[in-house]
Specification:
- By secondary structure, this protein is mostly helical.
- It is 66% helix and 0% strand.
- The protein has 7 helices and no strands.
- It has helices at 4-10, 26-51, 58-68, 74-94, 98-117, 130-145, 163-182.
- The longest helix has 26 residues, at 26-51.
- The N and C termini lie far apart (76 Å).
């Protein structure tokens, strides 16, 4: 039998909460659903550009489209855009290098907003900003809150999310977009 001093040392401080067992919550599953849905859709969008699958035109058609938008050389920017969507989407879906994945997706969406969507207003039905803004907001939100317990980033510091992670994602996206748009 423990003596009173041992019992007091083992007792939690007043007002402290007992540790919560690690169990998967509805929030964990909801964040996983969000990441996987948005991430895989964007990865598929990148596959359309790079490989011509899922109804996409492939690199040749995408290069011509980028040239028409003023990106020269079109093939280089088609590869950058497609790879950003593909790798950023996979990273988001897996919860792997989440701030970098978010930065890739936000950067592509900023470029799309500036070069294509802004001239058409807000709503997607008119070719506007609605879709690209939503994707960018989701990517930034995931960087801010972290990819959740059901992610490959879980053991790493950036797997917890936070202001720094959101700042890295937004900062890298902004710098990358500014460079691409200035070329």
């Amino acid at each position: 039998m423990k003596n009173i001093a041992e019992q007091l040392r083992a007792a939690p401080e007043p007002g402290a909460h007992a540790p919560v067992p690690h169990r998967v919550t509805a929030a964990d599953c909801g964040l996983l659903l969000l990441r996987v849905t948005v991430g895989l859709l964007l990865a598929g969008h990148g596959c359309q550009k790079l490989f011509g699958i899922f109804g996409g035109g492939g690199l040749t058609a995408t290069s011509k489209g980028f040239e028409a938008l003023g990106y020269h050389p079109g093939k280089l920017f088609a590869v950058l855009g497609g790879a950003s969507e593909f790798l950023g989407g996979l990273g988001l879906a897996l919860g792997l290098f989440t701030p970098l994945a978010a930065a890739a997706l936000i950067g592509v969406m900023i470029n799309a907003m500036v070069t294509v969507n802004a001239a058409h207003g807000l709503w997607e039905m008119n070719g506007g900003l609605e879709y690209t803004m939503t994707i960018a907001a989701v990517a930034l939100a995931v960087a801010a809150v972290g990819p959740g317990r059901l992610s490959l980033d879980r053991p790493f510091r950036w797997g917890k999310g936070g202001w720094k992670e959101a700042g890295v994602a937004l900062g890298l996206a902004g710098i990358g977009s500014a460079i691409v748009l200035s070329l």
